[in-house]
Amino acid sequence: MKILERIRNKKQRILRALFGTFSATALMFTFQACYGMPPGIFIQPRGQVLDAETGEPVEGLEVNLWMTPIDTTDHEGYFAGQYQDYSNIEYRVDVIDIDSTENGLYERMDTMIPVSQLQDMELKVQRIHEDS
Amino acid sequence: MKTPKRSPFKRWLFRIFRKNETAIRELNYLFWECTWRCNLSCRHCGSDCQSEAHVPDMPFTDFLHALEPLEKRYPRDTVIIAITGGEPLLRKDLAACGKALREHGFRWGIVTNGMLYDTARHQELIAAGLSSVTVSLDGLEETHNWLRGHPESYQRAMNALRLIAHTRGLSYDVVTCVHQRNIGELAQLKEELLANGIRNWRLFTIAPIGRAACNDTLQLTRTQLEEMLQFIAETRQEGRINITFSCEAYTGKYEEGIRDSYFFCRAGINIGSVLIDGSISACPNINRSFVQGNIYQDDLMEVWDNKFQVMRDRAWMRCGPCAKCKDFTQCLGGAMHLHPALGQPVLRCYKFS
User: Does one domain contain both A92 and A74?
Assistant: First the structure.
């Protein structure tokens, strides 16, 4: 019985994941009781950080939304995270070099990103050359 | 105005989604009816609250104790506690309750009339981790004050909204109960909200329950109901304000144009409540005959896992006007709070063909 229940649970979770993926929106899973307050929506910012001069991906930079750390870029410069907020049409994004010279030294960068572009950001950071 | 086109395929997909969510039945939205005291005496109150309630406020420690199994079951930040009443701001320990809820991994928010929501209270609640607020605003100043029975209620609600709307990261909305006296004011009210920087607006109608059951002038006529739905659909197309129709009923041909998703009453599927006397139910406005247990005798999660069948299998709602309705598979009998008791038909149908 327990095995059957486990299989059923797994099937339900897979179906839910499929809905989440193909609806391409969190809206189906965010709801509000008719007399309650909004639960807030987790937005999922993601993108890539590139070196402004070479166009190469940059690893080890911390990406922030409204000064809340979202993620640190991986070796291909990619980042992805979650943030609970739906009341803005623009978001401040800060990219901070937190590993000092380990993956090159980069200037701190801040910019405003429209909500429509939050899931496909391309951020360019300026390298600080040691000889400068 | 042309209504958005029905999408049978999307509706079919939605029904599969709803069935699956009903089977998973995650409790992630829990009301806490923390008090029955209220500082207003609104004509349409669904809870029939009093200024001096005959039921004492629930001690927070009792509620927190009831949450223990919930805390063990679900990851941090996945459950939100909707603190309601009565008027929750009448509880002096509200910020302390909220802070403790955050420490235990729950998000929390309040539904308020805004009367006591000033700058100091706002800062206190934000510091305690408040993540979401709903403020009621039921028309332009004169109408709102008439319905709420207080000459300053509009100004105070508006002050609260200005504070809330300009706080980054705080989810919020304004709810307006649409009735015969304010239906003609919606366009003006929209401009008022926009002028004050308020961008999230939810409309609902007044159900014939609680104090409103004895007041016919509060219920919209069928024509007015359609007028309201058209207003919502048109305003959504304009795109200047995030407006939705509350998830209180299936609306037939308007479904695609008035909300971000289809009607889905999640009472007992994702929504539960702990009521003032410890009763375990779904939304607080649901008839108390649907109570499923009590935190003073039962384990909250055991009740959630083993009861609530009446809300998860809604075949019993197929009676009265729903008996032969071809949209029943999409509507499932409307919202739980529109059923006065088990086996009784829905109080009102909102479907337009």
Answer: yes
